[in-house]
């Protein structure tokens, strides 16, 4: 059994290309997940699972751009794995075409663990919670995680300042906001690669094809900034990979792996980047 959530698309969700921004999709997934667990919770304890969890991993594959529409976009979600202290949800974001087929914009998965916020520790799933999740279980083989390479000395640095509005009711930075931090760090890093307005390097149009985030330690609100580091780990014909870490000193709080694709603005198709930009990417490889 699968749960379908009708998610409204807001005008402010768009990026400069007129697409729904890649970060916003993760907010849609969160809305669908909470709605699923609230709607189908079979007890008070099961209902608490809707909000009493933390995200361990998020892996998002972007399939097609989503443009603003007054129609809600549909988010289908279901359970793919239930373990002792974690469970995994899969998602598909789509519109239904007039012929009944789907226009799929995104496919994703999240690994979640129940959490005791008073003690700041994860806990095991109860038998009752496992039973409730089993109703939506469709086991699948887990997708291969992108390889992670050690941070090089030449990684780009970006100070991440946590806003008060980034923090949820449990005083943790919300999982969606990590995607925004990594996006800001990535854009800043591109400027450091020689793509600033005073440098004569063609600015490519980029779209995100995949983003995977591993959450390790909760990020809390504080006046001092955290450190975000970004570096190039692969350069292909029309795409490249950026890896990132969010740190507090030597402590890694979260890691991200992003695949970006260079596209032709008019054709909206992948295209090789300008040679000068490609040379900058290659020069940045560890």
Automatic annotation (TrEMBL):
Pfam families, from UniProt?
Answer: 4HBT_2
Q: Which UniProt keywords apply?
A: Hydrolase
Q: What EC number(s) has UniProt assigned to this enzyme? A: 3.1.2.-
Q: List the molecular function annotations (GO) for this entry.
A: hydrolase activity
InterPro entries this protein is in? 4-hydroxybenzoyl-CoA_TE, HotDog_dom_sf
Gene3D superfamilies xref list: Hotdog Thioesterase
Q: What class of enzyme is it?
A: hydrolase
Lineage, top-rank taxon, reads Bacteria
Name the PANTHER family for this protein.
Answer: 4-HYDROXYBENZOYL-COA THIOESTERASE FAMILY MEMBER, LONG-CHAIN ACYL-COA THIOESTERASE FADM
Q: What is this protein called?
A: Thioesterase family protein
Organism field: Nocardioides oceani
């Amino acid at each position: 059994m699968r749960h379908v959530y009708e998610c409204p698309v807001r005008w402010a969700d768009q990026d400069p290309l007129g697409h729904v921004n890649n970060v916003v999709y993760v907010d849609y997934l969160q809305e669908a997940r909470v709605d699923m667990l609230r709607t189908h919770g079979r007890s008070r304890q099961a209902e608490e699972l809707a909000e009493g969890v933390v995200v361990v991993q998020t892996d998002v594959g972007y399939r097609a751009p989503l443009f603003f529409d007054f129609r809600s976009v549909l988010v289908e979600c279901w359970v793919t794995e239930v373990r002792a202290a974690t469970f995994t949800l899969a998602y598909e974001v789509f519109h239904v075409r007039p012929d009944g087929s789907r226009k799929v914009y995104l496919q994703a998965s999240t690994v979640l663990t129940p959490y005791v916020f008073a003690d700041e520790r994860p806990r095991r799933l109860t038998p009752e919670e496992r039973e409730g999740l089993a109703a939506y279980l469709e086991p699948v083989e887990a997708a291969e995680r992108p390889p992670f390479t050690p941070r090089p000395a030449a990684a780009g640095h970006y100070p991440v300042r946590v806003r008060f509005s980034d923090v949820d009711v449990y005083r943790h930075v919300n999982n969606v906001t990590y995607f925004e931090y990594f996006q800001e760090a990535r854009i800043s890093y591109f400027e450091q690669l020689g793509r600033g307005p005073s440098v004569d390097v063609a600015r490519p149009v980029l779209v995100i094809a995949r983003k995977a985030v591993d959450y390790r330690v909760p990020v809390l609100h504080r006046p001092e900034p955290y450190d975000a580091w970004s570096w190039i780990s692969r350069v292909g014909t029309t795409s490249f990979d950026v890896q990132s870490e969010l740190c507090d000193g030597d402590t890694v709080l979260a890691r991200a792996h992003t695949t970006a694709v260079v596209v032709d603005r008019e054709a909206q198709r992948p295209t090789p980047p300008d040679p000068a930009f490609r040379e900058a990417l290659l020069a940045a490889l560890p």
